[in-house]
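Re: the request from the purification team.
They wanted to know what the chain is likely to look like in 3D before they choose a buffer screen. I agreed to run a prediction and write the result into the notebook, where they can find it.
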Amino acid sequence: MNFMGSPVSAGVLLLTSALVAMVVANSPASSAWTEFWHLEFGIELGTWKVHSSLLHWINDGLMALFFFTVGLELKREFLAGSLSNIKQAALPLGAALGGMVVPALIFYAFNSTGPTTAGWGIPMATDIAFAVGIMALLGSRVPLSLKVFVTALAIADDLGAVLVIAFFYTSHIDLVNVGVGLFFLVVLIGANALGVRKPLFYALVGILGIWLSFLSSGIHASIAGVMIAFTIPARTKIDEVTFTAKLKALTEDFLKIPPKKVTLLEPEQAEALDRIQVLALSADTPLQRLERSLGPLVNFVVMPVFAMANAGIRFDGNAVQSMFGSVSMGVFWGLLVGKWIGVVGATLLLHWLGWARLPEGMGKREVIAAGFLCGIGFTMSLFITGLAFGESLWAEQAKLGIVLASLVASVLAATVLFKFPASSSRR
């Protein structure tokens, strides 16, 4: 099995990282652990400088790469995936909307007044890595249609979370820096239109132009990652027919070169391979190439580091009391019950009204399981927690609610898929 390409491996590593953070946070090394994440360092470019803690650089900088891959995935799905036409997109979009509105309302029911209302966005998000990892662990118990539906729903959910962050979790906006960022965004859009395909160009302009501008603008820098992703070219330079014909010719040229019994290639062979590699790049899209290359980095570095930096919940004498705080209750019931009601209710309603059809192979069992799977709200929920509450006691309450709800939702989803027979229409 390819470890770096396995959703099970990504989910297990993410869970392990969170557990490590919790264990250390409740050990004698707790103080040193906290001090480590609060080490200060910064960037200086002339008179412009930004200084912050390691924790904030992870949440504002490293997670921008996570949001960049989210943007790549969203663009691919809108162009040629499950969200590319209204008939296919209606069900996951409707289910995602229901799965965002109901949890927010449940949280608000527990926190209708005061500063804790800021956390209404925390239970709205689904953690696609955990959800996909659990489905992979369950193997044949999960039909392909359920995997596709939950993945599409989680991608739509990510889009909703990005919009919520952009519009509701921003500080004072500096219009000058926003203008600078938008200027460089136009530069990247123009480069795409002119046929520029070098990822390095988009990286330099994106990071130095858009990300740094947004970092100082008041709009969360993670939004820059999504915006940059949408400028990445999603077209090939040559079509499949041309590629096949040229590849055949180059392969024939390679085979005509007499091989020698040495480990090194002949110069003519190396030259032929170079031409084949250039041809292969022309037949690939920069968007998909970046998505493939960055996937392992995000899944096996960025998200585990984020989990270790943000999931350090202390289970001291106040933990039980914190669990029954309004923030913990709002997050816990919002994720566990709100997500289920929103996803299942919207899915069945759209199907009953005839506005969307359940995918072949999905019945009530799969819809019920999907509702619980969407209650796993780890990464994005922790991220929004930081935006809403910083490092306050309310943040600790929210993290406790996130972890417990995600654990219970995982168990309930697995129970439904193991204990109840698959739908008769399953493929």
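For the purification team: The chain has a mean pLDDT of 87.
Please add any questions underneath this entry.
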